[in-house]
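Mods, move this if it's the wrong board.
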Amino acid sequence: MRQAHQFHGTLSLAAPSGSNANGDRKAPLSLEHRFANGDYGRTMKRAAEIAAQVFAARDALLREQSEDDRVAFLLFDSAAETLMVRWIASGMGLHKWDWGHYWRAPGERLLKPDLTDMEQRERERAAAGGRAVLWQLSASQKRKIERDFTAKLQLLAWDGAIPPAYIATLGRLHDYRNEMYHREESRPKALRTMVHLYAWLVADLLERLSAGWFSWSSDDPADLLKRTYARMGVEAPTVEGAPLGPSFEIQTHMAEALRRELRLEAVPALLGDYAADRLEKTHSRIAFCAEFLAGELDAKKVTEMDVIRLLYAPAPVGRLEDLAGLRVPVSRQTIASWDAWPDRIRTTEEPLDAFGSLAELEAEFEPFEAKVRELASQIDGEIQFRSDWARGK
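Not the wrong board. Structure tokens:
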């Protein structure tokens, strides 16, 4: 159906049967049937469910306790993915990227989206010279989008629903969620800042990924709209009859209510301080390792670069001289670049840019940080063992 190519914000529920508002042909199932009877109906209920997630997260955030920050972060991540899943499901229902099984007019092309090429859609549309360009995701692409958070982001960015920069930003925040949820790890010094940032992004997604249609069900509680607005802390609009007008705006109202509680002005400085703290801890761990190794290797001095070479040594080292000339992926210049990075983060003007800069640093720095942390842990364990042995434990 042609409507699918300009779906959100332009869908006409009053289009004649068999065509959209422009008279273009439709897929075999009508929109009314597909959305009222399939997985895409009852959007008031779905809006209420999103509001429950988002404002439970907001209320946890406002308690300003570390344990509540963790809960808020997990809920915001869940809300973000729910919005993404529902928006993609609606596009799939309209065959926006799944036209291969339907009739095409002579000259109409069916192309496979390249979800790494953010210019493809507009480029092919311009090249078509006014003819429709129809899209067909492969079976493997569909499976990946269904399972993978980043693949969902890529489809949304490719389709123009979110800025391409969100792929890295939201993907990194989702990585933090996985650390918390699956490995019971968290970043307490950064969590307070990051949960505010995630809240801001969820507010943005609420507006960008709003429903292109709206429906009510006779099964919905009569006070569902009122309850949903009560979660936001505002009065529900007064309407007569089926309240489709305010319903279409409900996610925008959620976004506005959520943003009122956010304080993002200090994000660049706080993220810069967080990065500086991690770098300082890594230098301290290296110094701790160097002090121990100087005694073990009978060396007058073990430098920071000696410890770094040891981290990447292909075999056990018995003498400091064995490390001489060893080429390693982390150089003095690399360390100097990382040490200067916090100031770059602090001087960014926008919170999302600051987080993007931090994510870029982490992508480079974290594998090295993990190596240093592991070596320091091993040495600490050895020192403790020797102490216990000397005391006869």
